[in-house]
User: Fold these one by one.
Assistant:
Number 1:
Amino acid sequence: MKNLILIFATCITLTSTATAQSYITKNGKISFFSKTSMENIDAVNNQAVSVLNTQTGDIAFSVLVTGFLFKKALMQEHFNENYMESQKFPKSSFKGSITDITKVNFKKDGTYNVTVTGDLSLHGETNKVTVPATIQVKGKSIIGSTAFNVNVDDYKITIPKVVENNISKTIAITVECSYEGR
Amino acid sequence: MKSLKIYCLIFSLLSFCHVGAQDTTDLMKMLEMEMESTKEMTRYTTATFKTTRLVNGQSVENVAKGVMDVKISHRFGNLNDGGYELFGLDKATMRMGIDYGITRYLMVGIGRSTFQKTYDAFFKVKILRQSAGQKKMPITLCYVPTIAYKTLKFEDPTIENYNSSRLSFSHQLIIGRKFSESTSLQLMPTFVHQNLVTGANDPNDIFAVGIGGRQKLTKRISFNFEYYYLVPEYKLPGTTSSLSVGFDIETGGHVFQLHFTNSQGMNERSFIADTKGKWEKGDILFGFNISRVFTIGKSH
């Protein structure tokens, strides 16, 4: 009987620790910025879903392309219709890991610089990316953020000649996710 | 002792499961599950057509909220006028117009055509929006009422003329569907009323059923067609159904529409009720519309 209680106790501790290692957000913020001398284009998506495993450092993102909001309606239409082809490729995702997760002490508040590496998939193309990121531990929540550039050519997104001066070939992407344990 | 062994066994088993839970595949599964919940959202169809006009008539598209669309349209003369008129290019009628999106569902427009010196105004309201996901709707439905005011001098100023004789109206329903990324079709039952007609036996009310569509050739170029079938009992003598074919070419904030049509007018009354050209006789006009959008208000 004693043993049974012991087993139960172990089970509970184990499951609770297991869940605490998975952190999730459903309203991660992903924005991008294209800067040219002609015009600046920016859009934001506040519905990125991301999961983070603090034990292994595994991290994944998924976002609906149609969820990016622009200031100009026509830009949003062209973004979905001509550039990202969101009917064909509705989701963009990232799957990888924080390579130096051991640097982060999740029990202690603070800001830690880390490196994230993995596969970034958008517009049906997948490329390996390695980017610097920061992890901010604040009590029970974890805030992950990063900023990096992608080349549109790497993802087979073609910019026609007529708007070549309006859209940058290098797009600056920023990510900010506030994770909660589950 | 035996129970301790069992305990160790279970413990190691649990630890194993525990490690398994940290696998990336599981992480992705979790992500997928979370994404599933967003899948239930309603996804509205966008960009059924490139602009708010197909050729002469309206498409199911509205301009977005806070967006002003400036439209300059030209129709040249008949191709069968021959080389002397440079196949119609020496003659031109035009319409200048401005459309504006008040809300996502409602747009208004005004315009002035040189053809019969006509002012026109309309609004377009979206009643249904094509969507998938949680709310499913197979079609987009619009209602477009228009009013046109002809300012051409009265033919006979010696008799008593009424200002109301200059007015005409139209009511149109547009039922459209985007079948695929590149193919869209729409039906346009239309009613036109003219306060004054030429002959005593001419009908004031005209019924037409329009059909139109587009087929994208590339991402930025589409082929469009538009046909307004006039119901025989309700048409003016000497008029024919309007048939137009053309291409939309989109370049950033502009849409260029180049087309061939047998209609000279560019408001509902003139191209639906008053088309006199016949394709088979070569009464074909070359024309273009240029649309340029400006974002004025806030889109969301």
Note: The mean pLDDT of chain B is 88.
Number 2:
Amino acid sequence: MTAVDGTPRPAQTRSVPWTRALAITYRVVLRELATRGRIIALSVLAFLSTLAGFAVGTSDSATLDDGVRLIAGLGLAGVVPVVALVFGGASIGDLRDDKTLVYLWLRPMDRSPMAFGAALAALTLATPITMIPLVAAALLTGVGGGIVGATALASAVGLIAYVAVFTMLGTWLKRYIVWGLAYILIWEGFIAQAGAGVARFALRKYTRSIMVAVTDVDLDLADFSLGVGIGVPLITAVAALAVATWRLAKQDID
Amino acid sequence: MSDLPPPDVFAAPSASSVVTAPLVLEGMIAVNQASKFFGSVVAVSDVSFAINGGVTALLGPNGAGKSTLFRMMCGLTPPSRGSITVLGADPRTDRVVRGRIALVPQQDALFDHLTALEFVTVAAESQGMGSPGEVAEHALGQVALTDTGDKRVGEFSKGMRQRVKVATALVNDPEVLILDEPLTGLDPVQRRRMIELFHRLGDDGRCVLVSSHVLDEVARLGSRVLVIAQGRLIAQGDYHDLRGLMDDRPHRIRLGVSDPRRFATALVDRGLVSALSLDADHVVIDTVDIDAVGRQLAPLAVELGIRLTEVNPLDDDLESVFRYLVEGR
């Protein structure tokens, strides 16, 4: 047998190295995710937290407590998970839904770099859209007390965990947005408020714990140490991407 | 067990192959008693065949199970029963063998934000090819799509998108090409060029499997044909046998005539029809001798002084051939 251009060739035993597969997936997913509408809509959502921070900062009676509650209640409970859901869920979910996943899946590549590359692309877009407005909001509150550093750390940890979990969700469910919103609004926003036991299974508890650990402000259901607040979400992220990898290997591809 | 490949030549539906023992087929693509169920829906049922180098056409109507069979061959979905091997390995689990297969999927989806060159370059990179840019340019040249510049594939016509998909399938210099309706949307010139390309690849010893639901396309694709209908492989063999079968089967034709009763009587008298029905303006005839009917219709109408306004074959399509093969009617 000869090559398409007529030159003789041996039997092929090609496969793509892990890092190259990661880079290819990252580039492709990044281009697919970075639509103008998505970026504008999510930036507007995140900017609302900046406006709220400014509003708090203009008040003469603003305290550190007010600032932390604003960041925890609007930023960590709303902006971070929603932005992560849109990008993380779409990173593989959209490729699966529009049937372009076949162009990556049917290659001599491992599944894990596909999952990690997709999540990394989602994180690349979600990070500036989320963290710049939230850190700006923390700055504009003008309450000091380590709120800026706490916001940056909690947002970063939360983004990594949420993006990974929602990337996994995108490999699994067609309506990942609906299920993701149900998790954010119903599980984290309602059921997990019922008690400390249930709250352990809500990422929000860990990001709130980071805020509390750094600022010493008292928030409900946020009693983990800084180490646990950072460690558990990161472990969750790795586990979620491992499941996404397994799911990619096992699922039917259209 | 009655689960073996259909006969190697086309046969009337009543013909049967007697099977005495299970047989494991071998080939560049080997499908052994493969079935695929989606819940209670049987998409592919107990299909067996083996093919090697050259062009083979997989012929079947829409919904026959062609795409599901192709997806199983590429490892995109596992068979519910039976086995499929490509180049001796399971493409679903063997990463290396996936690098020796190429698929042109039926669906139109592409990464619409990329240019053709970017899209095919990504394919070359993800196949582990060195100099992916050069490989991509060469592949685009194979499908005459080198001058699309910065235009994104999302702005391409259906035919251009189809050619991009074929170029993508060429980048890894594949030993097995699985092409699901690759000629859809192409203009006649591109269609001819593409068929020539498939033949070049097949002549080179590659296993090229092309699906189609258009009989005339299959005629030009190659002489080896697999026919699938209702998820079952109903025949395999030479295209010319299929064509003969199509010509030999009973045909139904509607004739528009000014005096249906007198014209029908004349057709019966001449032994041209095996059955007929009438209405005010038409005669619908069944005939097994389509050539004789074709030759004699007009002279007969002239001879009888009857105006012939319509000659309309009612079953000259692939569906009716499949119906005949499957159901004998």
Note: Confidence is low (pLDDT under 50) at residues 1-21 of chain B.
